[in-house]
Amino acid sequence: GPQPPEAAAAIDAYAARIGAPTFRFGRSFSVETTPGGMVYSAGGRVMLPRPVLPGAHQIDNAATAIAALERLKGFTITEMDLANGLINAEWPARMQRLKTGPLVDLLPDDWELWLDGGHNAAAGEAIAAHAAEHWTDRPLWLVTGMLNNKQAGRFLAAFKNLAAGARTVTIPGEPASYTADETAAIATGAGLPADPAEDVDSAIRAIAENTKTPARILICGSLYLAGRVLSENE
Q1: What CATH class has 96-232?
Q2: Is the pTM of this model over 0.90?
Q3: What's the pLDDT at 168?
């Protein structure tokens, strides 16, 4: 997908060093959004439906996936195949709404529980952009845990004027996890009010007990945390 100039330069330099061809977003292929979907361009233009996965960033992701498919040899892929893939794609823990399960049962009626495994600054910005555009109907709360090798402050800063607050957790079984207290301090320093919780269940209960109107909870910050949540919510 799109890369910062310094990253693109590093990729080009390494590719040149090992003799690998590059097929770069914005140079070899591109995508534009239309009222009815998206147009993918790489020598020709292909009109396609908008990806079913939530978030404007998924349009760039879809274009990158199509570009990769075009480079594979031995496959015949039609425009209908591409369209079917875009409208039927499923990607666990990527802006995934949890509609049933023990964690959902902790919430009052009319609440929503969502899950995303994004864990870097770009992911935080993409999630926050989606929330700012589509999630204005009710308060947003975060339940978050992060690894200590991630830029937690930059990720959480994206939500400082968007979320009502956060409950932070230590990721179970992950020695490299920030503690709940550490993540709460980082979030607060980034402008997002936060309090630590013992675990995800406790975090959800605390938010529900202290919020008087139906709200939306997003569990986010780590794929490791997302994996545990999906397992616990079965």
Answers
A1: alpha beta
A2: no
A3: 99
* Spatial distance between the Cα atoms of 150 and 190, rounded to a whole number of angstroms: 14
CB burial of 37-74 (b: ≥16 within 10 Å; e: otherwise) equals bbebeeeeeeebebbebbbebbbbbbbbbbbeebeeee
The predicted-structure confidence for 139-176, as pLDDT tens digits, reads as follows: 999 999 999 999 999 999 999 999 999 999 999 999 99
Domain boundaries, given as residue ranges, for the chain: 5-88, 96-232
Q: What is the C-alpha separation between 229 and 157, in angstroms, rounded?
A: 23
